């Protein structure tokens, strides 16, 4: 993932093509908490129907849910 730090700094700019890249990253590293959160934000940004399911998944992977 070439722009991972950029996505962390500006999560509101995650677009649908970034969601696709994050999907591939999570296939390889499913427990990567930061990627779980970034893909959740990307799905929210793109008004995806996958958002609610991913939000629950990201919450389950989060170490601290505060």
Quick synopsis:
The chain has 66 residues and is mostly helical.
Features:
mainly alpha; 4 helices; globular; single chain
Describe this structure in words.
The structure is a single chain. It is built from four helices and no strands. By secondary structure, it is mostly helical. The model has no long low-confidence stretch (mean pLDDT 92).
- The chain-level mean pLDDT equals 92
The helix fraction, in percent, is: 55-70%
Number of DSSP strands? 0
First-residue to last-residue Cα separation: 27 Å
Question: What proportion of the residues form beta strands (DSSP E)?
Answer: under 5%
Q: Tell me the Rg in angstroms.
A: 11 Å
User: What is the N-to-C order of secondary-structure elements (H for helix, E for strand)?
Assistant: HHHH
Helix tally equals 4
Which helices and strands occur, and which strands form pairs?
Blueprint: H1 4-9, H2 16-28, H3 33-45, H4 51-61
Helix pairs in contact: 2-3, 3-4
């Amino acid at each position: 993932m070439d722009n991972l730090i950029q996505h962390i700094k500006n999560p509101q700019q995650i677009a649908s093509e970034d969601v696709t890249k994050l999907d591939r990253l999570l296939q390889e590293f499913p427990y990567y908490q930061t990627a779980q959160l970034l893909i959740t934000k990307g799905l929210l940004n793109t008004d995806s129907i996958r958002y609610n399911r991913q939000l629950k998944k990201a919450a389950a992977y989060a170490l601290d849910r505060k």
